[in-house]
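pasting for ref
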Amino acid sequence: MSPITHFLVSWSVAGASGLGRRERAAIALAGVAPDLDGLGIVPELLTRGSTHSLPWFSEYHHVLGHNLGFAIVVTIAGFIFARAQRWKTALLVLLSFHLHLLGDVIGARGPDGFQWPIPYLLPFSHRLDIVWHGQWALNAWPNFVTTGIGLIIMFVIARNRGYSPLEIISKRADATFGSAVRNRFPLKASGTATT
């Protein structure tokens, strides 16, 4: 799945959690944290064709961040970062992280047909590489549907609860977005008037 899809899935978990802004941010960001190992694309592209190329993306994407060891690190960071309901936050961070791994197992096949295995037990063991042979391509329709559902959930949460993923970046932008969504899709009155 794309980073945007992963983020929308994890934001759906965060937005439905009933937790505060800080905790929601930890849960949402945990859903994209495994892809930090994809940042190796930058040095790889910059050194491609040189005598000292750095194949950091080719060698380490879906390895360094897509495993139980990194899940534990991200969960502990979420626990420490949270100010309230730390255990609930940590559990939802762990869930969000694992939803990313699940998304990659089911929907991240490359255009060349390569299936990214998930070395789940790293760094403790190399015994479990998770691959699903039915894995759909990164640009397959199920990923687009998942992204669409994530967007719908984001708009529903913004309308009903008054916050969106923008709150991670700016309270002001989030308030403006939430207001625009509620103006476009007003909440219905809770009761009906009688005469």
